[in-house]
Amino acid sequence: MTIKVPFGHRMRDAHFSFSPSYTPLNHGSFGTHPKSVQARQNELQSLAAQRPDTHIVFDLPNLIDESRTAIAPLLGVDVDEVVFVPNATTGVNTVLRNLKWETGDVVVHFSTIYSACEKTISSVDELTPVESENVRLEYPIEDGEIVRRFRERVEKVRGEGKRIRLAMFDTVLTFPGARMPWERLVEACKELDVLSLIDGAHGVGHIDLSELGKLSPDFFVSNCHKWLYTPRGCAVFYVPFRNQRLIRTSLPTSHGYQYPGQKPDTGGKTPFVHLFEFVATIDYSPYACVPAALEFRQKVCGGEAEIRKYCFDLARTGGQCVAEILGTHVMDNKTKTMSQCCFANVALPLPFGGTGKEKNVEGQKVFSEEEAPRIQKWLNATAVKEFDTYLQIALHSGYMWVRLSGQIYLEMKDFEWVGWRLKDLCAKINSGEVNG
C-alpha cells in the first residue's frame, strides 16, 4: 500500500534523489523523477540487457501501447492520436519538416518562442520557400492583447498576398515563465484557417490539459520529463486523426515509413502509431515509465489537481517572498492570468536601461543591456559554485529576472533561502565588486 507523503521537504527526502546540499529551484529546464520511477526504469533497462532482442521486438511495443493508453485520458484524446518522441523540439521538427511548403507560405510565431524552435524555423526557411513572421511580445501583457496582435499580424500578411499556413505558440513560456492563452489562440487559428502547432514543453503535468482533445489543435507536443516526472527524454506527440495524413515520416525516417501506395503490415496499428513505434535504436525506457509516473502522482501525491494547487500556490507565495527580500516585484499582468502556472518571475535589484556609465537617483550604476550576458553568467556560475543551486536568469523588457519553479519537493524556506543569497549577489554587482 502506497502512503501519501506531505509536499515539501518530507516529499523530497522520501521520494527524490537530490544531493543533500543541492537546492533544485529550476525544475522547469530538465525536470526530475521520483525514486519509484527510477526503479521502474532500472528494471526496464535490466530486461533490455538480459534479453535485448526479445525485449525490443516483443516487449517494447506493448509497453509503449500501455503508456499511450495511460496518458491519453490526461489529454482528453483518443489513444491512437498520441505517440512518443524524445522531446518537444523533436515534435516541432517533425511537424515543420513534414509539411509541404509553397511560395508565399508563412509561419507566424511570437518573439518569446523557445530558441531551438526559432532556429528550426530558420533551418526550414533555408531549405524551402516558407517565410516566418515574428510577433513581438513584452511581458507583462494581457491575454487579449496577445490574441489581438496575432489576429492583426495574420490579416497584415494576408493583405500582402501571402498565406499564414501555420502558427506556433506555447502553453507556458520558457522565459519569462508565463502561461500563454493557448486555448484562445487555437480558437483564433480555427477561425482564421491557420494550422496550429503548440509547443507544450511546459504542459503535461504542469497545467490542466484535459480539454486538449475538445479544443483539438492541429499539432501538439509536450515533454513528460519536465513536469510529469518521467525520466529524460520523453514527450507526448498529439496529432488528431484529421491531420495524421500530413505526418509522412518520423525523424529520423525509420521502419514505420510507408512508400506511396504501400500497404505494409502494421501489426494492427494505425499507420501513424506504427510510424513512431520504433524509430531507430534508442533507450525507450523513458516512454515505458509513463504508467509508473502517473501511479506516483495519483497514489503518493493525491492526483493532478493537488499537485497543481500546491505548485501554483508555492510559486506565487514563494515568488512574492523573494521579491520582498530583494525589494523588487513579481512579474504579472492585471488579470493574473500569466501567473497561473508553476513559475514565478522575480525582478532582480539591478538597474538596466542606461549606457553603463550613468547612475540612478540612489547612486547605483545603471547597466546597459550589453552588460547583461556578463552579469547573467556570473550569477549562474557563482550560484553553482557557492550555493549548490542553479538560477535561470535572463533580461526581459528592461529588467533582469530570475525564474523560480514551484514543485512538490520545495517549500517556502527554499524561496527565503534563495532570496537572501540573491540579495547578497546583487549587492556585490551593484557595488562594482564583480568585474567579469
From TrEMBL:
SUPFAM superfamilies: PLP-dependent transferases (SSF53383). The keyword Ligase does not apply. Keywords: Pyridoxal phosphate. The keyword Acyltransferase does not apply. InterPro entries: Aminotrans_V_dom, PyrdxlP-dep_Trfase, PyrdxlP-dep_Trfase_major. Pfam families: Aminotran_5. Residues 51-240 form the Aminotransferase class V domain. PANTHER family: HERCYNYLCYSTEINE SULFOXIDE LYASE (PTHR43092:SF2), L-CYSTEINE DESULFHYDRASE (PTHR43092). This is Related to isopenicillin N epimerase. It comes from Phialocephala subalpina.
